[in-house]
Amino acid sequence: MADTFRPGPEHRRVVFLTGAGLSARAGLPTFRGPDGLWAMHPSLERAMHAGALPASIPDLWRVWPSLYAQAARSGPTPGHRAIARMRGAVVTQNIDGLHQLAGSTDVAELHGDAGRAACLEDRCHWSAPLLPGEGERAEDHGVPAACPACGAPTRPDVVLFDEMLPADALERAQRLAREADLFVSVGTSGVVFPAAQLAPLARASGATTVLIDIAPEDPVGARARFDHVIVGDAHEVLPAWERVVNGVRSATFLDPFG
Ligand SMILES: [Zn+2]
């Protein structure tokens, strides 16, 4: 039977964990698959591993700012907009800035932000917004090639495979999961770190947990990990939720002057 869970007025602290599935509709490629990044940019698969640094920096400059610009041109999806209008906090594995463009203000970015540059040196905390351009040099994207703070090379602020997640974003994500009364995983399989850790953390802290996924990879496992599994398109499910949530909050039907 289809799960028809909807948020109610008892859900005051809603946290959304979002992954690539939410942005796919904005035309952003996923990593794998025939239309994925690896197929489009064969050199990028190697460049996405931390071990390829610093030689891979030109590849990273060539790809990430242009993907960020492409996301900005496509704009947020109906799912991003619904999340922003529900005023939920967001923990995202996406690097495209679309939650912020949709109007979400509380966003923890676990995998970085393709709209920013950072320093190659882990311990240096220099970071700056970039202006996406075309090319394989930092200067092509409006940022210096050498870190103004320490002189090390700069790079897109995107977390590569085998790199640590940013500690501040991870701490914030864990705090949001502990404080949530409704934790909703959207477009992410929920089996890899940190998604695998955040939903159980939220549940152990008393939250209701929900997975929204058009095709869950492991439906049986998902039903064990989440209180509700909604097999459906997030761009239909979330706007429907938003109408319920904002209908309740603004009491439209009871307002004689509305
Ligand atoms: Zn630096």
Automatic annotation (TrEMBL):
Transmembrane segments: none annotated. Zn(2+) binds at C119, C124, C147, C150. The active site is at H111 (proton acceptor). It comes from the Bacteria. Its EC number is 2.3.1.286. Keywords: Metal-binding, NAD, Transferase, Zinc. Residues 1-258 form the Deacetylase sirtuin-type domain. This is protein acetyllysine N-acetyltransferase.
